Amino acid sequence: MTADSHRAGNMGSGLDTRDRLLRCTATILASKGYGQTRLRDIAALAGVRSPAIYYHFASRDELVAATLCVGQQRLRQRVQAAIHATGGPWHKQLAAAVTAHLDVQLEMADFARAVSRNAGHGPAVAQERIQAENDAYHDVWRALLQRGRESGDIRDDLDLSVARMLVIGALNWAVEWWTPDRPFDELAATSIAVITAALSA
């Protein structure tokens, strides 16, 4: 992601500008961390003047908080939608959840890295909102795994809390090593196979 790619074209609508500011903030948070994230750098990368940021966000901390939360929000929404759209047996719901998680993480890689790098740092409001979003996302997986246990698809001897943490952790880590030259379908299929085999009764 480069400054030129963000500057390309005209300014577009207010929503376009807001989204561009979020993406540019994610890029800088991921590479520099909260302590080195400056509004002037975000503005330069987004192709706007610094004062324009305040049209969309009341403060630097509000911008950072929104950036760190947006990825988690979209992740939860997309995974929930994928599960609900499946409407089939549990193993298909699991496959849909795994695929959606990987798709969002890689599509929004800078947002994922920004959250990972700045966990425990930054404004208190951001940490509180991130924790709330993280809890809500874990609830989605908690419910999914519980349904798998009740349907007999998950082994009785597995601790579902540990399984949930390991599955989400493994999926989150893909953003650190996956490269675009690797086929996404192959990544998703392998992930589904490994996770299904580990959980299966």
Short synopsis of the structure:
With 201 residues, this protein is mostly helical.
Distance linking N and C termini: 43 Å
Strand content: under 5%
The topology string of helices and strands comes to: HHHHHHHHHH
Low-confidence stretches: 1-12
**Describe the biggest sheet?**
none
How many DSSP E strands? 0
Structure, explained:
With 201 residues, this protein is mainly alpha-helical. Helices cover 76% and strands 0% of the residues. It has ten helices and no strands. The radius of gyration is 19 Å and the shape is elongated. The N and C termini lie far apart (43 Å). The N terminus is likely disordered.
How are the elements arranged and paired?
Blueprint: H1 3-7, H2 14-32, H3 39-46, H4 53-56, H5 60-86, H6 90-107, H7 109-117, H8 124-151, H9 160-177, H10 184-199
Helix pairs in contact: 2-3, 2-5, 2-7, 5-6, 5-7, 5-8, 6-8, 6-9, 6-10, 8-9
Give a quick set of tags describing it.
disordered N terminus; elongated
